[in-house]
Amino acid sequence: MLRRLDRIRFRGHKREDFLDLAESPNASDTECGDEIPLKTSRPSPRDSEELRDPAGPGTLIMAAGVQDYSRTEFDRLNEIKGHLEIALLEKHFLQEELRKLREETNSEMLRQELDRERQRRLELEQKMQEVLKARSEEQPAQPQQPPKGQSQASNGTDRRCQGLSSRVQKWFYERFGEYVEDFRFQPEENTVETEEPLSARRLTENMRRLKRGAKPVTNFVKNLSALSDWYSIYTSAIAFTVYMNAVWHGWAIPMFLFLAILRLSLNYLIARGWRIQWSIVPEVSEVVEPAKEDLTVSEKFQLVLDVAQKAQNLFGKMADILEKIKNLFMWVQPEITQKLYIALWAAFLASCFFPYRLVGLAVGLYAGIKFFLIDFIFKRCPRLRAKYDTPYIIWKNLPTDPQLKERAGATMSRRLQTTSSRSYVSSAPAGLSKDEDAGRFHSTKKGNFHEIFNLTENERPLAVCENGWRCCLINRDRKMPTDYIRNGVLYVTENYLCFESSKSGSSKRNKVIKLVDITDIQKYKVLSVLPGSGMGIAVSTPSTQKPLVFGAMVHRDEAFETIFSQYTKITSAAASGGDS
Q: Which of 16, 117, 283, 493 has the smallest C-beta neighbourhood within 10 Å, fewest atoms?
């Protein structure tokens, strides 16, 4: 066997025919300087004996082959292990998404309702069987027949009574049966409406329907605004004169009712085919864009984006209005709600001590002067409006829920920074200079902080996360085990979220995320296979399809509060800078 291997080994060219790697003129320093170190050493007597022995080289080749084979098998096992870990983590992610989908679709509620219906059907079937069984038992057990004379007389009277009672019941049911059925109590049925799947065509059509339906209301509001802005001087002057005379003589309510009747009459004539272009208030013309029939794929895609943007902005404005009204009545801004409180008390006392005619006259005159004169002046003079227009000031200063959340996050970050700076100052030694103090904050185990992450020198971790939070970064966009999950330390600076990989090597394994680029941040708890009770933080960015998860965090809540407060601070500063 050894001889055969020896023959195979010496079957090719001799050693002297090949050009030595160290003597090759084309060998570069980068290729062989680091990975293939060359050592010229004199052969030992033992090696010369092995070379002379014909069995020596064969044994070395077999050992090298076995070692290479075992190494490749070990690498394959590690690769399979990594893929299994990825599959296990993806399973947990998908289970969490499935649970959220089940909660959104209320499948459990539908299943419970189906079980109740089945139970009700079984009860009804059981009752039907009992009734049929009772009837079958009553039929054979008939009473003994009395004598013929008595039976005929009793049968006659019974038939008369039954006929009379059946007629009365029939007459009563025909007259009042429908009303009796209306007052019958029935259990409420919880009907679940089936939701249509998302469709771009359906979304575009619904937005167009909404625009067409809201067009009369928006046109009427615009025309009223034009009347208040004295768009047509003669029309506004006539309307102001008529309104003030009607209020002074107590005919304001009949005037508005007459205008409503007149508008309905005009609408009736228009529906019958009459062409009437007259309007009570002046109309403001708008440029109508003609609808395109043949659209390309890019134009259709842009149309869907425009519709989605309009829907987003519309829902945002409606949410802002509702949240401001809610915060006004919930004393979220006490100094603003206090003004409304005093005004309501004044109106209540005025309605109690003054006659309604006088109160109505005062309210009507104030509304007319405010609508026709004061609003006109305030719209032409914005600085005057910002100082003296009380309803406008109250509405602008009312906060929405996102604004309240940003304020709470900013105050929380200030408190954390204040407490951390105080604790650091109290624990710092007396002879520590400012430069040494700054150096403690932006240095890690591997070197300077700004050099590791390629940042500026003023970027350093916050005082709360001076030593960072140990965690593992799960990048679900990657499929290789070495790129899918990495262990390391997470830091937060004033403008960045930095992850330092624990593996020694190039800085490409580190991750730097701008806080401004973060689109969503939320707590995540599905990684029960990882330490730290599976606590994690999911961060979404435009450059990733799936959110980045910083899992296996022991101090997850502290990290989340710090990151979220810094994120809200940066976004609010960017928004204020853009507005200015």
A: 16
The pLDDT of 404-413, averaged and rounded, is 78
Amino acid of residue 86: I
Q: Are 488 and 471 in contact (CB under 8 A)?
A: yes
Cβ neighbours of residue 448 under 8 Å, at least 6 residues apart? 442
C-beta of residue 490 within 8 angstroms of C-beta of residue 471: yes
Question: Three-state DSSP class for 42?
Answer: coil
Distance of alpha carbon 307 from the chain centroid = 19
Confidence tier at 471 by pLDDT (50, 70, 90): confident
Give the type of residue at 532. G
SS3 at position 540: strand
Q: Which contiguous run of DSSP H or E holds residue 513?
A: strand 511-514
Please provide the distance, in angstroms rounded to a whole number, between the alpha carbons at the two ends of the chain: 87
Classify residue 354 by its DSSP letter: S
pLDDT tens-place string over residues 94-120: 877 777 777 776 767 777 888 888 888
pLDDT of residue 328: 92
Q: Residue 435's CB: how many other CB atoms inside 10 A?
A: 7
Burial class of 518 by CB neighbour count within 10 A (0 to 12, 13 to 18, 19+): buried
Distances (CA, A) of 488 to 101, 292, 312: 32, 55, 38
Helix (H) or strand (E) holding 551: strand 548-551
In SS3 terms, 383-432 reads as HHHHHHCHHHHHHHHCCCHHHHHHHHHHHHHHHHHHHHHHHHHHHCCCCC
Using pLDDT thresholds of 50, 70 and 90, give the confidence band for residue 580.
low
SS (H, E, C) 435-502: HHHHHHHCEECCEEHHHHCCCCCCCCCCCCCCCCEEEEEECCCCCCHHHHEEEEEEEECCCEEEEEEC
Contact 552, 536 (CB under 8 A): yes
Residue 55 burial (CB count, 10 A): 13
168/3 Cα distance (integer angstroms): 122
pLDDT exceeds cutoff 60 at 39: no
What pairing do the DSSP bridges indicate for beta strands 469-474 and 485-492?
antiparallel
- Gyration radius of the chain's alpha carbons: 43
Helix orientation angle between 297-329 and 401-427, rounded to the nearest 10 degrees: 80
Rounded Cα gap, residues 61 and 502, in angstroms:
38
Q: Which helix (H) or strand (E) holds 522?
A: strand 520-525
Pair of tokens at residue 351: 């309605």
Helix runs in 146-291, H state only: 148-182, 200-228, 233-248, 252-271
Query: pTM here?
Result: 0.44
Residue pointed to by tokens 């289970």 = 95
d(CA 383, CA 377): 11
CA distances from 171 to 72, 115, 163, 179, 437 (A): 97, 42, 12, 14, 101
Most confident region among 245-249, 436-440, 463-467 by mean pLDDT: 245-249
**Could you give the CA distance from residue 282 to residue 379 in angstroms, rounded to a whole number?**
19
Token reading at 81: 């292990």
